[in-house]
Amino acid sequence: MTATAPDDLAISDRLDQLVARAGGDKVTLGWILDQLHERAFGLFLLILALPCCIPFLYGVPQIVALPLMFISVQILIGRRVPWLPHRLAARDVSAEGLRGLSRRAGPWLRRIEAVSRPRLGVLTRAPLDHLVGGALVLFSASILVPLPGTNTVPGFAVVLVAMGLLQRDGILVLIGALIGTAWIGSLLFAGATLASLIRTWLGL
Asked: Which of 6, 22, 130, 146 can bridge 95 by disulfide, Cβ–Cβ 3.0-4.6 Å?
């Protein structure tokens, strides 16, 4: 459901192809989704998560986090084809920003492609891909946390999971899931520590 057999084009080339099709100053998330066809789940996750990997970038991660979470929920519940409601699908993305993202991300994607291969495929298909979808929901939610740098680590985790789903590489899925889970754990620990300090300071 979340990945199909790889076609002749590498993921980085598919991203370049998408950028080449983008006309005008802006495209919508719905337009991007329509262009992805049979690899829509993995590629859409990847495209949404890539901007989140940029440290201390504000605004864009929060814009894409809700669609990212929405798509992750669909993986969790086992949908075969991704869908966005009209309000999310109508969100604009700068065509120039998409081109810049492709230029910056391309070399890194090619490095990942060079070491990736089909392995531990059980993690990329039902029923375990539903658990992966649940983890992606949590990672996407953490991107919304309004703290410095909170988008970078979960964004990178989602990119690795998306690449793993696309390449049928369970090792990448596992690495991404571990990074994202460690990040969620650190947020929970930091929150609990802060709450404890506040209670101590207030004498509660």
From this structure: 22
